[in-house]
Design goal:
Layout (H helix, E strand, L loop, with lengths): L9 H20 L3 E4 L2 E4 L5 H15 L1 H27 L9 H8 L2 H29 L5 H25 L8 H34 L20
Antiparallel strand pairs: 1-2
Helix pairs in contact: 1-2, 1-3, 2-3, 2-5, 2-6, 2-7, 3-4, 3-5, 5-6, 6-7
Function: Involved in the import of queuosine (Q) precursors, required for Q precursor salvage.
Keywords: Cell inner membrane, Cell membrane, Membrane, Transmembrane, Transmembrane helix, Transport
Membrane topology: Multi-pass membrane protein
């Protein structure tokens, strides 16, 4: 139950697809500011925390090296999507097309949001995976709930501290940014806590099905060793 394979399983592939879809959806949804009572948020809150939950599951079951592959795959697919959106936005619309303003409102802002998202995502995701990995070794595999929550707090905090000033500086009033960042971290963590019972069951089912429960002893945490899986 502790060996790490150089290949990837079908379930890992499916989790990777869902991870990429969540990241791409979050980039588009982040362009809308929403209000939940008196709290200002971005629409990305609906889906982005799911990517951290998937990251937790992958790191817990398959280890940091598979999580590293997952993170860089998500980065590449997200970049590809944003590049296509920006290209389409730059091409002149047909004479009968009257939705340029709406299309540009989403994809015209997306490149700036995406670049901020890319940096924040990579930093936050790797911190999340690193904390999960190190705490698992320290605790001998116990206390999954604690490391899932603490890794999310660490990752989401770094993500928000990087993303919001870069993506929304000058768009959102400066006085609103600190509260927006804080609420994002708090609510994404609450999201993780609410989903935790499901996450625990998913992790247990994955370990049984895959016959894997990886401990990252003696590995390199170098984020550039993308294809070093075994």
């Amino acid at each position: 139950m502790t060996e790490q394979k150089q290949s990837v399983s079908v379930l890992f592939m499916l989790f990777s697809i869902l991870f990429c879809v969540c990241l791409i959806a979050a980039n588009v949804l982040e362009t809308k500011q929403i209000a939940v009572g008196p709290i200002s948020l971005t629409g990305g809150l609906i889906v982005f925390p799911v990517s951290y939950i998937i990251n937790d599951c992958v790191c817990e079951v398959w280890g940091f090296r598979k999580a590293r592959l997952l993170i860089w795959t998500g980065f590449a697919m997200n970049f590809f999507f944003v590049a296509l959106g920006a290209l389409c936005d730059a091409i002149p619309g047909a004479s009968y097309w009257h939705n340029d303003e709406g299309f540009h409102a989403i994809f015209g802002l997306a490149p700036r949001i995406a670049m901020a998202s890319f940096v924040a995502f990579v930093v936050g995701s790797f911190i999340n995976a690193y904390v999960m990995s190190r705490m698992k070794i320290r605790d001998g595999g116990r206390h999954f709930s604690a490391r899932a929550i603490l890794s999310t707090v660490a990752g989401e905090s770094c993500d928000s501290l990087i993303f919001f000033p870069l993506a929304l500086g000058g768009v959102v009033p400066a006085g609103e940014l600190p509260a927006l960042m804080l609420w994002q971290v708090v609510l994404k963590t609450v999201y993780e806590v609410v989903a935790l019972p499901v996450t625990i069951r998913v992790v247990r089912a994955l370990k049984r099905h895959e016959g894997a429960d990886v401990y990252d002893r003696g590995i390199s945490y170098n984020v550039w060793k993308i294809f070093s899986l075994g």
